[in-house]
């Protein structure tokens, strides 16, 4: 059975929409996902530095609930993933 770490990394590599990823992490954290914990998980488990992902937090309130349109959030995530993919090569 794959570990949560490899599962999360696989989800990111597959290009999961950001809001789907966020829901997955919230379920995993039993609804208690802080912005700092979110950044740490992405860095440790997916290999995406918090310096790359911290800007996406401007689209969320402190409880990690969206305050921007889902399309805007997912587009920002797609741009971030494209940049991350280039760096991985």
How would you characterize this protein structure?
- With 89 residues, this protein is an all-alpha fold.
- It has one domain.
- It is 63% helix and 0% strand.
- It has 5 helices and no strands.
Number of strands: 0
Beta fraction: under 5%
* Helix and strand composition category: mainly alpha
Specify the biggest β-sheet: none
Radius of gyration: 12 Å
- Termini gap: 27 Å
- In helices, the fraction of residues equals 55-70%
Number of domains: 1
Q: What order do the helices and strands follow?
A: HHHHH
Mean pLDDT: 89
Shape: globular
Q: Are there runs of 5+ residues with pLDDT below 50, and where? A: none
Number of helices: 5
Outline the fold blueprint.
Elements: H1 4-13, H2 18-28, H3 35-46, H4 50-53, H5 70-88
Helix pairs in contact: 1-3
Key descriptive features of the protein:
mainly alpha, 5 helices, 0% strand
Q: Would you summarize the structure shown here?
A:
The N and C termini lie far apart (27 Å). The chain has one domain. With 89 residues, it is an all-alpha fold.
């Amino acid at each position: 059975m794959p570990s949560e770490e490899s599962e999360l990394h696989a989800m990111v590599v597959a290009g999961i929409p950001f809001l789907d990823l966020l829901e997955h992490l919230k379920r995993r954290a039993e609804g208690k996902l802080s912005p700092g914990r979110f950044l740490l998980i992405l860095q440790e488990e997916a290999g995406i530095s918090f310096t790359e992902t911290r800007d996406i937090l401007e689209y969320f309130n402190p409880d990690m609930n969206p305050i921007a349109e889902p399309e805007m959030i997912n587009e920002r995530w797609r741009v971030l993933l494209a940049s991350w993919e280039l760096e991985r090569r």
